[in-house]
TrEMBL record:
One Pfam family this sequence matches: Amidohydro_3
InterPro entries, alphabetized: Amidohydro_3, Metal-dep_hydrolase_composite, Metal_Hydrolase, YtcJ-like
PANTHER family tied to this protein: IMIDAZOLONEPROPIONASE, PROTEIN LONG AFTER FAR-RED 3
Domain of life: Bacteria
Gene3D superfamilies, sorted: 3.10.310.70, Metal-dependent hydrolases, Urease, subunit C, domain 1
Domain Amidohydrolase: 48-530
Listed GO MF terms: hydrolase activity, acting on carbon-nitrogen (but not peptide) bonds
Name of the protein described by the UniProt record: Amidohydrolase 3 domain-containing protein
Amino acid sequence: MNADLIIKNATIHTMDDNRPKADQIAVKDGKIIAFDQEAALLQGEETEVIDADGRVVLPGIIESHAHPLHYANNLLQLDLRTETAPSITDILEAVSKRAQEIPEGEWILGMGWDDSKLKEKRFPSFEELSEAAPHHPVFLKRTCVHNAVANRKAFEASGISEDPVDPDGGHFHRNSDGTVSGLIQENAMMEFAIPSVTINQLKDAMREAQEHFFQWGITTIHDMAVSKKELTVYQELCKEGGFPLKVRMWLWGIDQMGWQGVEEEALALGLQSGLGDDHLNIQGLKYMLDGSVGGRTAALAEPFVDDGDNRGILYMPQEKINKHVSRAVANGMRVSIHGIGERAVEMALQAIEQAAPLDENKKHRHRIEHCALPSEEQLERIASQEIVAGSSIGFIYAIGDSYWNNLGEERARRVFPHASFRKHGIVSPGNSDMPVCPGNPFFGMYAAVTRTTVGGQQLGTEETIPVEEAVKAYTADAAYSGFDDTIIGTLSEGKYADIVILEDNPFTIPEEKIKDIQVSQTIVEGETVYKRENS
Ligand SMILES: [Zn+2]
């Protein structure tokens, strides 16, 4: 028997304790069949051989908490964040370019502009946008998503007069001469007849998003908010082919965040965790208990910095989450509960503790998502229930500065405490919550190792972990969190050949360079799905 693929001359970190390192790996029928000398013997005439030229090879990266379809949906809109469009001129250019690409009358949607950061320190006007796209309705959301700007065609297409009446809780902003300025606020945004995205558009966008994930070395992704639309898109993509990304689906439990919950329907149908296959499967039900640190809505034990007695918000009483979790577990569904502040982590813990006897709970590998600020006592209980801490360590890099500002130094030093998780034996996969934060997993590994923010602030050194452990958080531990530890997460004989080859060696480069690591090649089940140019 010859191998289909052999990667040789490689620095392979398998993340498998039984064989931590190797220099050759052989693949047959999408699975790993041999290492080193034994692998070399399997080279035949038909075997594809990749000479890694000494590069580091890791298991395919598993993003354990993301919103891939939201990320994909964003690709359908113009990206107007300051990083990509620093001035109004840039925004108008992007709009008129899109107008030339799509048929007249189709909506041009965009998001991410921020007047406070734009060069002109103002928002693009009604007249400017009407001139940039005279035949297309334009609707561009501000970064906060509570405001937008629109053009004449958008008013016309929505049947809104240019002398509009403000709806309850909304406002059409006007110029000093009384004409509409184009700025639309709060509920007035609902007056616009923006067509909803079609399943076909989403599928195309998801295929494009998949390319981005492969560029980052991600071969498996957990979608934390799956309802009918997401389930439809993933099922159709899997049937149609050309979608090798492995997807793990967490069904959105109840109506929250403006998204419709499907707990009732899922339990009525008798769906259980694990339904599906190695490519696409159902993980469990997801619930949210508190907000965010950036929005000062995470449910903290003590108030936010300089914010009176604001300790954040709990989205429901204890009895309610208890009921949902009990019902889910009784019906064979594991749960994943969003808890950031100590009070939310406490509520999640109590809900899980009361749902089933310890032995049964342990079998489910329930998850507390983000798990930013667990107390020492809570860490012990998380460990004893064998709950997975779905740690959003990527937040430290991308938005850690807001953590420092909103929580103060003492608490910022103990957010996403990976060293403490390890000490307690808590499995703690890393994540980005993409598109909340950038999906590049090397930002998360960098944050785990250095606890340094994009602004250069270090959130203490007590909770730093070695590079090896940071890689584990995005491979073996993430596989465990999805009951995938027998099929992916380490490079081991019999597991899928989901493999990444890196340009730089994370174990030897200076720590500050980990965030800049580029992927050289990504392989899913033995097939190359991404190859960097000039590598
Ligand atoms: Zn999320």
